[in-house]
C-alpha cells in the first residue's frame, strides 16, 4: 500500500515537472533579444518598456553613429557569461574600446562632471531605434547610462536555462585545466569557484573572507537596482515619469511637482493588478481555448477563401485572355482580307502595264494593225484599238498605284484599354463616411448628412444606424436601429423622442461589401414638441420698418430716419418706438419648443413670448424708450410694488445686442415691450448660432436655451392665464430667422384674436 502511494506521489511530481518544463519551453520566445535573437544578457529597459541586451544596444548605437554613449564601462561584465565564447556572435567579432578611452568619450560627449558648466553646450539627444516597436526612442543625453537593468528578466532567463539545461554545467574559472565543476559564486569577485578555489581566493582573516557565496551562475547581478544617475539604491517610483528614482532624484527639480510614491506602494499596486489580470486569464481558460478554436477555424476558412479567390481571379483573367485572343483573330482576318484585295488590284495593274512594252501585248498588236493596207479593214480594226490605246496613254500620263501599300488605318489605339488593365485591381469597400456636422441637426426630426472621402471607392447605398444613449443599458451587445439601403448622402429620421440624446453612424456598401462605420455623432433632440408657426405681418407696430420674407420665416428691421434723428438728438430727447412682430400661432396647453437665429450685427433684439391680450394692447402705442421723460424705475419702494412682485409677468424676453446676450437678475422676469430689464449690472454671454425657447404652459415657465448644445441660458416665470404667442421686438436694425422644420411644412393656421383661419 505504501509503495503504491509512493509511486502515485512520484508520478504526480513527474507530471508537475513536465508541465513546468513545457511551460518554460513555451515562453522561450519571451526571453529572446529582438536584436541578436538569443537569450537576454544583461537586458536594459528602454523608455518604450521593451528590453534589449546591453551589448546589442551598444552595437546598435555604434551603427547609428553614436560613439561613447554605451553607458558606464565598468558595467561590462567579466563573468564567464560575457566571454567571447558565450556572448553574442556579433559582439565577439567587434573590438571593444579600452575603458580609459571610453571614459574620455563619455565625459566629452555628454553628462555633467566637475569642471563643466551646465548649459555651456547644447546636450545631444540620443535616439535609439527600438527593434520591437519599430520606433525611435529618446534616451536623453546620457544614452544607455540612464537606463535600468531588468534584473527580474535576468532571473527568469537564468531559471529557464537551469530548467532546460542550456549550456551544461558551470565550470570553475580559477582552476587549472581541466577545470572542475563550479559549486559557488561570488558577486563581489564576479566569478565562479569550486570548493578548493573559493577557499584559496577567500582566505580566512582577510576582507574577501566576508564575501557571501552564492550559487554558480553565468550572469552576476547587483544586489538591487541602483539609480543610473547617482548610483544610489532606488526607493521611490515617479508616477508622472513612470520611472524608479532614488532619494537624490526625488529632491531634484527634474521631478518637482511630480506624483512620487514609495517603491513598496508601487510594488503592491502593480503586483495586485498583475495578479488580478493573471487570475482572470487563468480563470477563463475555456474562453481562451474557445477563441483559439475560432481563430483556427478562421485560419482554415481563410485558406479555403483565399484559394477560391485565386481560382476566381485566374478564371476572370483567362476570360480576358480568351476575349483578347478572339479579338486578335478577328482583327488579323480583317487585315488579311484587305491585303489580298490590294494585292489583286496591284497585280492587275502590273499586267496592264506589261502589255504596253514594245513587242508585247497591246503595243505589238497595234504595230501589226498598222501594217494593214486595206483601208476599210484598217478603219474597222483600228477604231476599237484606238480607244484602248487612248486609255493606256491616259493611264501613263496620270499614273498612280491601284491600291495603297500603307496599313495605317489598321493601327489600334489601346491606350484606354492599357490604362484600364493597368488599373485593374480588386474591388474595395467604401471608406468610412465623414459626417457633415454643419448640416446635421435635430429639430422636429433628425437630419443626417455625410460624404465620402475624396479617394474612396463609390458606394451603391448606405446603412444608417442610430440609438438612444440616455436609456438604461440592456444586457448583451448594444442594439442599434437600422435603416437599410439609403440612397444619396442624407437621411431623415422621423419622430424622435423629445429630450433625448441620439448617437448616429453610417457606412457605405458596394459589390465588395460593407465599409467601415463613420465616427459617431451625438445629437440632442428638443426638450419639447416643436411648434411650427409663421411670422404674422398683420400684427405689429411700424410695419413699414419691418421687412418679412415671402415664406414668412424671416424678418428684418430697417430703422431708417427715426434712428438717425435719435442719434442726432440723443442729449436733447427724441421719440423712438419698438417694432414688434408676432407668430401666427398661440399656445394654450402643453409644452412647446421653437428655435431661431439672430443676426449678430443686430443692434437690440428681444426674443420671447407674451400673453396675446397684452401684446395686442401694446400695439396701440409703444412707449418712448429714449426720451428723458421715460423712467423705467422711479426708485419708489411702495407697498403696492412689494405686493405685486410675486405675480408672474405677462412677457418673457431675452435681450440680445451686438452679438451678446444680457443675463441679469430679473432680466426676463420683468422684461416686456417697455424695456424694463431690471438692473443693468447683468452679465453677458456670447450669442450662440441658434436660440431655443421652451414654453411649459401648465407650469408657467419659459426656458431659453442654446439650440446647438441645449445648454440652459435662462429660465423665468410667465403669466399663462390666456393664449401665449411667440414675439420678437426690434430697437434699431436687426434680423431674425426662424429655424426651418426638417419634415413637411405644416399648414398655416392663425389663432390670434380668438379665431382660427386656414390660408
TrEMBL record:
<dbReference type="InterPro" id="IPR013083">
    <property type="entry name" value="Znf_RING/FYVE/PHD"/>
</dbReference>
<dbReference type="GO" id="GO:1904115">
    <property type="term" value="C:axon cytoplasm"/>
</dbReference>
<dbReference type="Pfam" id="PF13445">
    <property type="entry name" value="zf-RING_UBOX"/>
</dbReference>
<dbReference type="InterPro" id="IPR000315">
    <property type="entry name" value="Znf_B-box"/>
</dbReference>
<dbReference type="InterPro" id="IPR013783">
    <property type="entry name" value="Ig-like_fold"/>
</dbReference>
<feature type="domain" description="B30.2/SPRY">
    <location>
        <begin position="513"/>
        <end position="747"/>
    </location>
</feature>
<dbReference type="GO" id="GO:0007409">
    <property type="term" value="P:axonogenesis"/>
</dbReference>
<dbReference type="GO" id="GO:0001764">
    <property type="term" value="P:neuron migration"/>
</dbReference>
<dbReference type="InterPro" id="IPR017903">
    <property type="entry name" value="COS_domain"/>
</dbReference>
<protein>
    <recommendedName>
        <fullName>Tripartite motif-containing protein 46</fullName>
    </recommendedName>
</protein>
<dbReference type="InterPro" id="IPR003961">
    <property type="entry name" value="FN3_dom"/>
</dbReference>
<comment type="similarity">
    <text>Belongs to the TRIM/RBCC family.</text>
</comment>
<feature type="domain" description="Fibronectin type-III">
    <location>
        <begin position="429"/>
        <end position="528"/>
    </location>
</feature>
<dbReference type="InterPro" id="IPR035731">
    <property type="entry name" value="SPRY/PRY_TRIM46"/>
</dbReference>
<keyword id="KW-0597">Phosphoprotein</keyword>
<dbReference type="GO" id="GO:0032880">
    <property type="term" value="P:regulation of protein localization"/>
</dbReference>
<keyword id="KW-0863">Zinc-finger</keyword>
<dbReference type="GO" id="GO:0048490">
    <property type="term" value="P:anterograde synaptic vesicle transport"/>
</dbReference>
<keyword id="KW-0963">Cytoplasm</keyword>
<dbReference type="GO" id="GO:0044304">
    <property type="term" value="C:main axon"/>
</dbReference>
<dbReference type="InterPro" id="IPR001841">
    <property type="entry name" value="Znf_RING"/>
</dbReference>
<feature type="compositionally biased region" description="Low complexity">
    <location>
        <begin position="73"/>
        <end position="89"/>
    </location>
</feature>
<dbReference type="InterPro" id="IPR036116">
    <property type="entry name" value="FN3_sf"/>
</dbReference>
<dbReference type="GO" id="GO:1990769">
    <property type="term" value="C:proximal neuron projection"/>
</dbReference>
<dbReference type="GO" id="GO:0005856">
    <property type="term" value="C:cytoskeleton"/>
</dbReference>
<dbReference type="InterPro" id="IPR040859">
    <property type="entry name" value="Midline-1_COS"/>
</dbReference>
<dbReference type="InterPro" id="IPR001870">
    <property type="entry name" value="B30.2/SPRY"/>
</dbReference>
<dbReference type="InterPro" id="IPR027370">
    <property type="entry name" value="Znf-RING_euk"/>
</dbReference>
<feature type="domain" description="B box-type">
    <location>
        <begin position="222"/>
        <end position="263"/>
    </location>
</feature>
<keyword id="KW-0966">Cell projection</keyword>
<keyword id="KW-0206">Cytoskeleton</keyword>
<keyword id="KW-0479">Metal-binding</keyword>
<dbReference type="GO" id="GO:0008270">
    <property type="term" value="F:zinc ion binding"/>
</dbReference>
<dbReference type="Pfam" id="PF18568">
    <property type="entry name" value="COS"/>
</dbReference>
<feature type="region of interest" description="Disordered">
    <location>
        <begin position="67"/>
        <end position="98"/>
    </location>
</feature>
<dbReference type="GO" id="GO:0099612">
    <property type="term" value="P:protein localization to axon"/>
</dbReference>
<dbReference type="InterPro" id="IPR013320">
    <property type="entry name" value="ConA-like_dom_sf"/>
</dbReference>
<feature type="compositionally biased region" description="Basic and acidic residues">
    <location>
        <begin position="630"/>
        <end position="639"/>
    </location>
</feature>
<dbReference type="GO" id="GO:0043194">
    <property type="term" value="C:axon initial segment"/>
</dbReference>
<keyword id="KW-0677">Repeat</keyword>
<feature type="domain" description="COS">
    <location>
        <begin position="370"/>
        <end position="427"/>
    </location>
</feature>
<dbReference type="InterPro" id="IPR017907">
    <property type="entry name" value="Znf_RING_CS"/>
</dbReference>
Amino acid at each position: 500500500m505504501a509503495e503504491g502511494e509512493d509511486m502515485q506521489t512520484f508520478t504526480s511530481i513527474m507530471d508537475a515537472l513536465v508541465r513546468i518544463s513545457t511551460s518554460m519551453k513555451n515562453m522561450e520566445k519571451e526571453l529572446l533579444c529582438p536584436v541578436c535573437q538569443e537569450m537576454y544578457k544583461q537586458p536594459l529597459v528602454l523608455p518604450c518598456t521593451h528590453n534589449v541586451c546591453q551589448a546589442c544596444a551598444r552595437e546598435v548605437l555604434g551603427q547609428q553613429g553614436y560613439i561613447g554613449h554605451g553607458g558606464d564601462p565598468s558595467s561590462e561584465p567579466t563573468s564567464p557569461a560575457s566571454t567571447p565564447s558565450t556572448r553574442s556572435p556579433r559582439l565577439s567579432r567587434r573590438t571593444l574600446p579600452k575603458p580609459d578611452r571610453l571614459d574620455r568619450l563619455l565625459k566629452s560627449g555628454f553628462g555633467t562632471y566637475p569642471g563643466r558648466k551646465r548649459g555651456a553646450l547644447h546636450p545631444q539627444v540620443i535616439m535609439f531605434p527600438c527593434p520591437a516597436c519599430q520606433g525611435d526612442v529618446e534616451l536623453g543625453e546620457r544614452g544607455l547610462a540612464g537606463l535600468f537593468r531588468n534584473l527580474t528578466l535576468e532571473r527568469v532567463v537564468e531559471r529557464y536555462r537551469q530548467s532546460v539545461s542550456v549550456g551544461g554545467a558551470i565550470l570553475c574559472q580559477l582552476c587549472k585545466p581541466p577545470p572542475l565543476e563550479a559549486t559557488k559564486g561570488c558577486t563581489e569577485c564576479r566569478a565562479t569557484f569550486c570548493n578548493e578555489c573559493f577557499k584559496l581566493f577567500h582566505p580566512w582573516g582577510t576582507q574577501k573572507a566576508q564575501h557571501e557565496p552564492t550559487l554558480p551562475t553565468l550572469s552576476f547581478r547587483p544586489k538591487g537596482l541602483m539609480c543610473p544617475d547617482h548610483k544610489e539604491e532606488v526607493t521611490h517610483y515617479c508616477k508622472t515619469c513612470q520611472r524608479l528614482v532614488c532619494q537624490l532624484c526625488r529632491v531634484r527639480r527634474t521631478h518637482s511637482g511630480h506624483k512620487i510614491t514609495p517603491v513598496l506602494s508601487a510594488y503592491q499596486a502593480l503586483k495586485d493588478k498583475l495578479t488580478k489580470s493573471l487570475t482572470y486569464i487563468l480563470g477563463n481558460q475555456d474562453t481562451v481555448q474557445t477563441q483559439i478554436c475560432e481563430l483556427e477555424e478562421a485560419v482554415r476558412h481563410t485558406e479555403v477563401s483565399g484559394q477560391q479567390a485565386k481560382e476566381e481571379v485566374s478564371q476572370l483573367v483567362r476570360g480576358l485572355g480568351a476575349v483578347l485572343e478572339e479579338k486578335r483573330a478577328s482583327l488579323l482576318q480583317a487585315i488579311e482580307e484587305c491585303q489580298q484585295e490590294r494585292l489583286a488590284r496591284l497585280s492587275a495593274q502590273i499586267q496592264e502595264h506589261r502589255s504596253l512594252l514594245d513587242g508585247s501585248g497591246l503595243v505589238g498588236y497595234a504595230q501589226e494593225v498598222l501594217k494593214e493596207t486595206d483601208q476599210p479593214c484598217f478603219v474597222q480594226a483600228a477604231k476599237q484599238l484606238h480607244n484602248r490605246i487612248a486609255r493606256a496613254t491616259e493611264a501613263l500620263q496620270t499614273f498612280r498605284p491601284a491600291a495603297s501599300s500603307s496599313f495605317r488605318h489598321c493601327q489600334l489605339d489601346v491606350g484606354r484599354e492599357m490604362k484600364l488593365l493597368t488599373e485593374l485591381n480588386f474591388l474595395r469597400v467604401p471608406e468610412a463616411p465623414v459626417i457633415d456636422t454643419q448640416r446635421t441637426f435635430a429639430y422636429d426630426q433628425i437630419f443626417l448628412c455625410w460624404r465620402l472621402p475624396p479617394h474612396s471607392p463609390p458606394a451603391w447605398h448606405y446603412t444608417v444606424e442610430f440609438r438612444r444613449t440616455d436609456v438604461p443599458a440592456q444586457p448583451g451587445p448594444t442594439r442599434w436601429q437600422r435603416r437599410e439601403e439609403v440612397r444619396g448622402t442624407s437621411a431623415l429620421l422621423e419622430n424622435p423622442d423629445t429630450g433625448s440624446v441620439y448617437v448616429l453612424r453610417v457606412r457605405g456598401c458596394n459589390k465588395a461589401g460593407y465599409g467601415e462605420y463613420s465616427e459617431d455623432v451625438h445629437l440632442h433632440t428638443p426638450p419639447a414638441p416643436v411648434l411650427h408657426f409663421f411670422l404674422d405681418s398683420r400684427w405689429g407696430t411700424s410695419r413699414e420698418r419691418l421687412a418679412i420674407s415671402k415664406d414668412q420665416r424671416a424678418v428684418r428691421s430697417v430703422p431708417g430716419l427715426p434712428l438717425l434723428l435719435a442719434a442726432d438728438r440723443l442729449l436733447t430727447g427724441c421719440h423712438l418706438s419698438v417694432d414688434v412682430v408676432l407668430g401666427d400661432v398661440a399656445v394654450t396647453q402643453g409644452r412647446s419648443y421653437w428655435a431661431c437665429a439672430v443676426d449678430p450685427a443686430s443692434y437690440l433684439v428681444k426674443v420671447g413670448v407674451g400673453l396675446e391680450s397684452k401684446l395686442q394692447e401694446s400695439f396701440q402705442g409703444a412707449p418712448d424708450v429714449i426720451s428723458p421723460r421715460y423712467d423705467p424705475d422711479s426708485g419708489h419702494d411702495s407697498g403696492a410694488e412689494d405686493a405685486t412682485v410675486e405675480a408672474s409677468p405677462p412677457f418673457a424676453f431675452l435681450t440680445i445686442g451686438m452679438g451678446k446676450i444680457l443675463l441679469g437678475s430679473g432680466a426676463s422676469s420683468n422684461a416686456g415691450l417697455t424695456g424694463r430689464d431690471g438692473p443693468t449690472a447683468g452679465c453677458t454671454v456670447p450669442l450662440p448660432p441658434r436660440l431655443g425657447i421652451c414654453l411649459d404652459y401648465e407650469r408657467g415657465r419659459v426656458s431659453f436655451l442654446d439650440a446647438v448644445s441645449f445648454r440652459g441660458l435662462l429660465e423665468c416665470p410667465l403669466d399663462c392665464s390666456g393664449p401665449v404667442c411667440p414675439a420678437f421686438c426690434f430697437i434699431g436694425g436687426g434680423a431674425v430667422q426662424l429655424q426651418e422644420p426638417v419634415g413637411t411644412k405644416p399648414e398655416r393656421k392663425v389663432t390670434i384674436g380668438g379665431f382660427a383661419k386656414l390660408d
